[in-house]
Amino acid sequence: DVPKATxxxxxxxxxxxxxxxxxxxxxxxxxxxxxxxxxxxxxRPRVPPAMSPQSCCQQHSDEVCESCVVKTTLTAxxxxxxxxxxxxxxxxxxxxxxxxxxxxxxxxxEIVKELYSDLNVIRGSGGSTVTCGNVLYLLLFGWWLSFLxxxxxAVMFVTVVGAPYGRLCWxxxxxxxxxxxxxxxxxEVPKSxxxxxxxxxxxxxxGAGETSALLGGPTPCRWRPWCWxxxxxxxxxxxxxxxxxxxxxxxxxxGLVCVAAWLLVVLIPVAKLSARTATRVLLLPxxxxxxxxxxxxxxxxxxxxxxxxxxAVNPYYYKYAVDGINVFAVNLLPLVLVTLVxxxxxxxxxxxxxxxxxxxxxxxxxxxxxxxxxxxxxxSAQSNxxxxxxxxxxxxxxxxxxxxxxxxxxxxxxxxxCYAEIVxxxxxxxxVGCVLFVPGLCMVIGGIRxxxxxxxxxxxxxxxxxxxxxxxxxxAPTLFSKVYGKLVCGECHNVTQNPLGHYLCHxxxxxxxxxxxxxxxxxxxxxxxxxSLLLPAAYLIGLFFTLxxxxxxxxxxxxxxxxxxxxxxxxxHWSRWRALVILLLSTLCMSACADLATEHISPxxxxxxxxxxxxxxTVLAMVPELPEIVNGIQFxxxxxxxxxxxxxxxxxxxxxxxxxxxxxxxxxxxxxxxTLVFSDLHVYASMFSVVLMNYIFMDGKCDYFQGTVLVMVYxxxxxxxxxxxxxxxx
Length: 730
Hints:
elongated, 3-stranded antiparallel beta sheet, 2 domains, A middle domain of Talin 1, 27 helices, 12 strands, about 725 residues
């Protein structure tokens, strides 16, 4: 694998001089690539020794320093992955870490290959089998599985005709008590001892190539119709007794073990062990299944190895994927079905309470957000720029908008202003969390592996400038109302005997509806509409700036690599039509879960002692963003902090420049209690967060200490919201 050479910039960049040369000579390695998952290379260019950065920039103070101004080249396995990676560096596009195509098997690490291997490979001595994970298997599954096999063996011995299956169950009882370092193999019985020799001959004569649907192995002979004609009478009776008395009980037990181990993720080897036993081992004739212990000096075994397990726990199974879908998203998908069934079938809360349904609905949003993100990334990577931009703009914020709109509709129907305040708290919580918590957490976790991380300060500066603009625009109506609104207090007491003395007032707020709402309808509302038009326009200008006229600020060149001896045809996990169907279905399920969440949040708001501010800022704001947080952490671990920062900045910019204007536009057609006037706490928290983020990102490098500062400030703001009184109307 030879890294691609860096490419000089084109003539379009020749206008940049002086300071640009200084910056490139000093920080040529700002943008760092994702090395491990791309399977190819990131070439980090250096200045030639013959020309130092100082002499270079002194000699070419009025011209572009051609030896310093270079592009960082990122390479991917195929064109689709190159498009996905390129979209990650485009402003306004969803950043996605996982692959949208199947990676070549030869490019994967040995750790990942082991995750997808079958449990039928005999390895050399890898140390003792007495490990914490294996002991955990013994405590969770091994003892009672072994005891169940002993009971089934006793039953089969009692039937007399099922004695061969009883001996098999007795052997398997010892195996499943401690299966590590043992093998189950399928042996070939000599012809003189075969009771079903004619059966095998009939199978070969028929040419039937039946295989197991689950594991791809040959179907046991006794299931074929010609077997019954030639097998012995007592063997047929014994097989019937086994299928009626023994196999169903053991298959059910292994099914429960398989589901439980799969849900625990790290115990997926146990799930594979149980699945292979139920679908392969227990369907073999008893004389063809042999259980034996491996010895260090043993020669290779004769016969097919069906099961061979050394470890019950593998901590790397968090990387496991099914058809490109992470195992955690697969495990959480049934939760969505349970939530929808309970929510709409048990409408009178006879089975579960409202808090339980609210929690389930909120947890169901996480896998749906993952599927929406995966579908958007798949469609964008397989489409041109226009289609990708439309899909990202349309569905990029669908998760948050679905919840906000359903909450506003419910609040409008009930005449409850509390829902509008909850939406404002969630908007502020998303903004503050994506500005402070997401990049701070990525800096801390990435800083554990990398002492100092660098990022493209110029590209981050574009998002920072848009954040300043968007925060100023969003809170402009609030500041306007503070200046021109009339302060109205619910209750005032004179703390002195003098009528002209000091008064202590409670429940004060700025009234915008004085004189039949003249101030609001004549001044504040037009300002809200003006801001709601200007913010999306500024967002489009930012897109045009970063994607068209100044795309060079990312210093990134994407290309698909062609390594000798490797075939890199793109095998996509989801085609465009499949991704579109999943995107639409996930959006519909998201709408249903959001409706259930808003339907059952009322008891929590009325009976909870926690401030409604805190509920909106934390739970409702950050739970939908968990897939984005995971993506940011993965980028940071791969020393690609630029994308980790861009994830948080892009979400925060979209909150102010897209989501809030859409909510304002929605209130025009469907009147609600939502007004673009926020509480003082929201204003101060948001502005302070944006200022602190820009200060931290000023020098283009960071470490875990700076990330800790951002995270600590975020938790301080959460404490403020926790102890703050509930907003008026709740």
